[in-house]
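User: Show me sequence and structure for the first protein, then do the same for the second.

Assistant: Starting with the first protein.
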Amino acid sequence: MRQVIPLLLLLTALPSLAAPPRLTLFITVDALGSDLLLRTRPRFKGGLGQLLDSGAFYPYASYGYAKPRTAPGHATLATGANPWRHGIVDNRIINRATGKPERAFPDPAHSVLKASPSTGDVSPAALLAETLADKLRLSTQKQGKALALSGKARSAIPLAGRLGQAYWFDDKVGQFVTSTWYTKELPGWLEAFNTAHPPEAWFGTKWEPLLPVAEYEGDDDQPREGDYGGLGRTFPHPLTGGLAAPGPLAYSAFSVSPLSMELVVQAARAAIEGEGLGKDEVPDLLAVSISATDSVFHLYGPQSWEMQDTLYRLDKVVGDLVALAERAAGGRAHLLVVLTADHGGAAIPEQWAAQGVDAQRVDPRALSKGLTEALRGRFGGDITATIEELDVYLGGKTLEGLKVDGAAVRRAAAAWLGRQPAISLAVARDDLYTVPDVGGMMTLLRRGYYPGRSGDVLFVVKPFHVIDSEPTGANHGAPYGYDRLVPLVLAGKGVKPGTYTQEISTTDVAPTVAALLEMGLPSSAEGTPRYESISLGR
């Protein structure tokens, strides 16, 4: 007894573990690279600036695979795994059975509710790893709710996983939709939200600079900026889509603009109230993916006035989302906030070149044509080469009918690509795991490869060389810092504030959030909790 009593006294003196946060707000900002955030940070005066100043800020979270894109990025953030485990390798692949392009999340067994029939992203059937949302639902006997909102299906679906709920904005109908995987009919709160036609409130308005023009660096109209939906290249940008009344073209122009971020905030408010998120001790998850940042990035580039203005507006939007979540959870003591990004992005290559950088826009169609001609000249027949970003898919009856040695064709394709001026290296899938990893690029290619979905040949462009079939705008998807490095910010319950400058992996995000929620890690996670920024004791 004399030994037991001191032990009991010691145990009662130890700090007890606090209950997990009632609500986790998980924000992903599409195309928010570390360099873009750090360059703009001094001008953040609103919610994003406050989050950076008061939370645990990791400026250098790195994607560990070669092709940072939206679908695999969100899948990695949700699962803590790389594509070689979760199976989502790109926004689009070539279906080998049909020879046609296919989205990352296809599902012929399900359809999109309240929208026209779609062959696009529909359900998480293709996602092969457990997500944070799935883990939360299972850990709470499905009492905890997990809901994802986005302007893109390929962002919402992996964040919701198989057991959560995913809703995304469809610019064809101007409403938030979901698929029959998740529900047979929209919940009442979303029906009411859509019935009010909120996007129409912006019809006829213009996207104007939020701040005085002196706050914007460079020129409004810069070389190789794009134009879409009648938005034009300079401010102000009309949001009508060239229509006299609201319709798909207007919805599309609106969704590209950062004003659509305000619609996402409205939808988040409706979801919080409709689902009663954060109202009890059972933890809930609300994932919000901001898509307009990526649209503006692709159209105008990261150095444009439009991108600067989008980030200034994001600063406020983040504050609005945090305020909504804080009220729902009953105060900051019951809230966890996570903010990160699915990828970064390169500058418009012609703008880089004008500054003296060895940069170039690389047209994948020209590469495909040249490679196809070279392979037919050597092997004959009807061999075809289709390039999707950094993947080459080989096809044709000659190859499919085994009239030639497939491995020889793949190796010849890799050798031809490796000789092109814009290409740093290329490898046939047959040799991916055996060739020496000079410079570390093979490891990045391996982590991004999934058999049957990835290409027959993988390649890497040289630094500052950007794969893009469009003659204007910017792109992402290369294994360099401007594409791979993104910020991670944690704030709220259980978080130690500070700036942590070590490079971490984006596979650490899901395990860290799981640890803060005091639950097990997603089952296929490769990363580990960032213990240096976690404090779970009272």
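Switching to the second protein now.
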Amino acid sequence: MKKFKYITGLLCLLVGISCTKDFDEINTNNQGFTSDEVSAKYFLTSAQVGLYAPGRFEYWRAHLIHTDRFAGHFTFGMNQSWWADGLSYTYDPGYTDAAYDWLAGYFGNIKSFGDLTAEGGEFENQFMYAMSLIMKGLYYQMYTDTFGMVPFSEAGVEGFLTPKYDTQMEIYKGIIADLDTAMNIIGDEERTGLGIDDAGANDVYCGGDLQLWKKLANTLKLRLGTRALGAPGENFATQTITEAMSQPLLDAGSGSVTMKKDFVISEWTSSSYGDVWNDFGVGSDWTVSQPLINLLQDNNDPRLAIYAKPAKGGTFNFENDGDDDFMERVDFMEAALIAAGATYTRTDNGNTVVLEVPSGQYIGQPVRMNGLTMPYVRYDLFSTPSDAIIQPRGKEAEGYPEIIISSADSYFLQAEAAVKGIGSGDAQALFTSGIKEAMKLWNIGEGDADTYIASSAIADISVGTTEEKLEKIALQRWLASYTDGFEAWAVVRKTGYPQELAAGVNNQTIFELGTLNGAYPQRLRYGTGAQANPNFNAAISTQGPDAQGTKLWWAK
């Protein structure tokens, strides 16, 4: 019988299971593990978890400081915060490096699992290898859509210590080819094997269901085709979209592919928003943005109470201590209340303005305000994330789902294709299904979803110009991507919606213009370590300056 000899402690660490129960027996077994006791599935979970729920350090710097705020869902900069909301709009290598180092370095986790399961690998399993190709696609879509050109074709290839940077078009084509290979391998198979070779619960994305993996891969293919459509030089997007829509996609039957939060394992291994919220105190807290709150509230969206909490409200005194722009800043705070439809009273008395705001109202904080405006941005004036988002570690209650790809996005992408004349689908029917699936992600009942669809103009694409229909689809995709800042940010950059985000800012009295001089951020800069690759300069020459304002290949 074939034997596999591993250091017991290392195997237990990677597997993520307790080693103590049979320690004495294992420690005295010099022959190691037999082939019927080991499987690649024990290396699968660790390769999956960290991409969507990395440690607290990465979650803080990559998600909250950058993508979630560029997406326009969350805001910093209230008066008790450590930073103004201009943070990251002004380039800071200390924060950007953390995001880059995590994402660039994560490829090793995906590659290791692929190497183990590939033909000739230690745990050769063609179906788990197919899963690794799909995981690679998920990873690279996030990676390239964050930075642009990155190493792909030569990454991890023996002999290439300094791989070249591939263009986004090349990367997209490469991902699609890998997805096609994976789907062909899976075919009609349902499981990765029997017994020890069944990925089962170790697969925290799909539970070992290969047909769900296949739908996931095909939906990712549809997303890539849609995002590439109309980009300079692309000649494959329409065919990609058409192929994807001819095969099974994530739908109401399959539901969304999400990863359940694990509030037991170490926050340094797998974290959540709650770890930042509860560990650091009010200085690290954040509020929910004005664009998000107002879009939900203006359309009687039942997700409002699921996404956010009402503002605490209170009596807010603003006293002019010599600020020449005092009244403009106070007026701006009042304008946020008006935009939210809030009930309040204002009293002006010389150099003092008092705003009295009753509790229980949803009020979003404007995005990207500067440090001089920050003292006026009172914490209790604005809505904060719901309990599901800031779920404390160790509690039994359910936290928010980590979205891998949702069935809602699948329907929205198909609706977009129909509006653009690709395929023969019913755009409104697909759009309606997408909204219902988006509501299901947050346990909102079908009745509430139906009421919203019947009464909200934002849910109707049966009328209007093509651009008006596409705007509504983009806004629904943006809403459905709440807590998935990477994807929500990509939606804004590709579509230009919500318009108030994509337009950037220009009033330097109120806003932080930052490194971008008020423009909307289009990418993250590479980490400083990327410059060690001699191919770095060639990438910059092709793509454009290593700046946040350099648009990616597919951006509007």
